[in-house]
Amino acid sequence: MSRDLGHPIAYGRTAEIYAWQEGKVLKLFYDWFCLENIEYEAQIAQAVYASGLPVPAVGEVTRVNDRNGLVYQRVEGDPMSDMLAQRPWNGIRCARRVAELQAQMHASTIQVNIPSQKQKLINKIRHSKALPAYLQSKTLAALEIMPDGDRLCHGDFHPGKFLITPQGETIID
Asked: What are 163's strand-pairing partners?
């Protein structure tokens, strides 16, 4: 499907975010980001949404302008990082809220048939060309003795991943 999307409303490391249909956004991934990873993100996003955490609902994987995308519920709000830059005196309150949300996330179990985060990390480390062999083996040895689990882990949890909305904070990405 070819479509004039206008200008992105946000940019990320792997994708651009566009206004989409009413109440939705399109996360349009860059060409180098493979479809398998997008489908993986969709699976995880559905499981996280089902857990009851304050996250946007996820829709379908789609193809627009020769790129793969993922449709999400649109959440109107400002990033917590922007609010901190404008009002740094709110830092302690924001840090407390981030910690509460992280604890809530880590208390949530995930029931979805996907590889564990531990296994994904092991695979990435094994295929890393930038990591020297001695650090690779040391890191893999440390990961091997860690227990498996069924808890959620965001992997990139920081104030830029929270939107401040009238209903409260929403975790994104």
From this structure: 79, 170
CATH topology of domain 10-73: Phosphorylase Kinase; domain 1 (3.30.200)
Nearest to 27 by CA among 17, 40, 37: 17
| Closest CA relative to residue 104, chosen from 160, 153, 172 | 153
> Which of 15 and 121 is assigned the larger pLDDT?
15
Domains of the chain, by residue range, sit at 10-73, 78-171
Read off the pLDDT of residues 72-81 as tens digits, 9 standing for 90 and up.
Answer: 999 999 999 9
Residue where the block lists tokens 């498996």: 148
Question: Residue 144 is encoded by which pair of tokens?
Answer: 């091997």
What is the rounded distance in angstroms from the CA atom of residue 75 to the CA atom of residue 55? 9
d(C-alpha 171, C-alpha 164), whole Å: 9
* Beta-bridge mates of residue 24: 73
Q: 3-state DSSP helix/strand/coil percent for the chain, to nearest 5?
A: 40, 25, 40
What is the pTM assigned to this prediction?
0.78
